[in-house]
Design brief:
Keywords: Metal-binding, Zinc, Zinc-finger. By secondary structure, the protein is α+β, with helices and mostly antiparallel strands. Helices cover 21% and strands 21% of the residues. Helix 1 packs across helix 2. Bound molecules: 2-oxoglutaric acid (AKG) and fe (ii) ion.
Length: 472
């Protein structure tokens, strides 16, 4: 699981991301553009906790209408804003596709059928069910009825049992302790990896406390997911990336070695807008996400740089690599897309997803109970933790806390450029140090020049540093 909100430590300008920082230099790092990017998520998290029955889409709309002022938004909401018809997330039949259809003079050669071209629109949600639509309009592909029915049910039953002891991740937001709006646990392949997770890996400032080993069923399904995802990756490369993997995408087969398992118990449980952390996955990561139980909407939206210039630039993604899917030229593309994830569907988040899109599972106004799971949805995200991104192989700042890997998404300048930064500000009792350096990778996404830069190797952050959690 990945951060869905991040505590914002200090407010400063992001001007240091304008290219003045040499790649190997450790330098002062004012608050980065990413924390600006996430401040909307922080605001949404605060609003969600104050107004738990209002869906995130509505909160975002009203927040934007109030120029990002949380207090003013909250006042409006307290004045009992009537719900807009059609707002929120139900799994009711879509009524909206037609309004998104535009005629296309020349048929899209990638389209497998003569279907109308669909566009997401700002402020509106495009609902997608069909695998061909999903593959054309998002950086994801979906396989319905992925496992043999009995295997899916048996895995679901096992994970429903496991999930009884899952916990909400709590984390510190300003001076408050906030809970993630769903429960989860993290699974790895062996006891040794479990120990490493507990003693070497750091998530938003602390170690995970609930780490388990993959059950035999999760292992068996992992092998199936691995095979399918590798097939989908090749298909994607051929059909969408012009036959060549993306710059920084690993050319090696995707071999998942860990999984976050999430449980959403009832329609209100959710996960806010986020991109999955790349710190341990590396750039251009691929994730295989299996859904079981209740159907929920998985929402995606493109990250549009706020730089006006970008909207008019036909090629804003100077360094996103060949085939990078960033065609931000149309501001309407900022609209949300809802991918409906039924029981036993495998969603592949491809290499163009995390850096260029955000995703969420929004609260639903209604759900159709599942015969085995009742109101619950289980989601397993299989991930490949790359050795080159093990904390022992990545930079460490003077304060001794492993740095995190982020990407510039807000400003056109340096858009798509990766950087390492200190995350100690999320550790209780620690102030973020000022570590910042641009990250460099070879064409296959392996880190370059890290060793020379390791400032001070202290012992790894351990469990006994008081835990303070954000959603994974
Ligand atoms: O529940 C899902 O489908 C997505 C979960 C997710 O985004 C995550 O674990 O990072
Ligand atoms: Fe995620």
């Amino acid at each position: 699981m990945d951060t869905f909100v991040t505590r914002q430590k200090r407010k400063c300008s992001d001007s240091n991301l304008s290219g003045a920082v040499p790649a190997t230099q450790v330098t002062t790092q004012p608050t980065t553009q990413s924390s600006h990017e996430e401040s909307t998520d922080v605001k949404l998290a605060i609003l969600s906790s104050l107004h738990p029955t209002i869906d995130q889409e509505t909160l975002l709309d009203i927040l934007l209408a109030h120029d990002g002022d949380v207090e003013a938004t909250s006042r409006t909401l307290k004045a009992r804003l009537p719900r807009k018809p059609g707002m929120g997330s139900t799994v009711a039949a879509q009524s909206s596709l037609r309004s998104f259809a535009v005629s296309s003079a020349s048929p899209d050669p990638l389209s497998q059928s003569k279907r109308p071209k669909l566009l997401s629109r700002k402020g509106a949600t495009l609902h997608l069910y069909d695998p061909v639509d999903i593959s054309e309009h998002t950086p994801c592909t979906i396989i319905h009825n992925f496992l043999p029915a009995e295997e899916a049910n048996s895995l679901l039953e096992e994970l429903l049992e496991e999930s009884k002891s899952f916990e909400k991740i709590t984390f510190k937001l300003f001076d408050n302790v906030v809970s993630s709006p769903h429960t989860s646990s993290f699974y790895v392949g062996s006891y040794e990896e479990l120990q490493e997770q507990k003693h070497e890996y750091v998530y938003n400032g602390s170690a995970l406390t609930d780490v388990r080993t993959l059950t035999p069923q999760l292992e068996r399904v992992k092998a199936r997911v691995q095979e399918a995802v590798n097939r989908e990756i090749q298909e994607r490369i051929q059909t969408r990336y012009g036959g060549k993997k993306l710059k920084y995408q690993s050319p090696k087969p995707w071999t998942p070695n860990a999984a976050f398992v999430n449980c959403y118990n009832g329609p209100q449980e959710s996960v806010g807008w986020h991109s999955d952390h790349l710190t341990y996955l590396g750039p251009r990561a691929v994730i295989g996400s299996l859904s079981l139980g209740v159907t929920r909407e998985f929402r995606v939206r493109r990250i549009v740089p706020q730089d006006d210039a970008v909207a008019n630039d036909p090629n804003p993604s100077g360094n996103s690599g060949n085939g990078g899917s960033n065609n931000n030229t149309n501001p309407d593309l900022a609209g949300q897309i809802a991918i409906h994830l039924p029981h036993n569907s495998l969603l592949v988040m491809h290499a163009d997803m995390q850096e260029e899109w955000k995703h969420s599972v929004s609260p639903a106004q209604a759900i159709d109970p599942h015969p085995v799971a009742g109101n619950r949805r289980i989601n397993i995200t299989y991930r490949h933790y790359r050795d080159g991104f093990h904390p022992r192989n990545t930079p460490r700042c003077p304060c001794g806390v492993p740095v995190i890997l982020r990407v510039v998404t807000k400003k056109r300048e340096n858009w798509g450029r990766y950087f390492w930064m200190c995350h100690a500000g999320n550790v209780p009792g620690k102030e973020a140090c000022e570590y910042f350096r641009w990250a460099e990778f070879d064409q296959d996404g392996e880190p370059l020049g890290v060793k020379q830069d390791s400032v001070k190797r202290e012992g790894p952050a351990r469990e006994d540093s008081k835990p303070e959690k954000e959603a994974g």
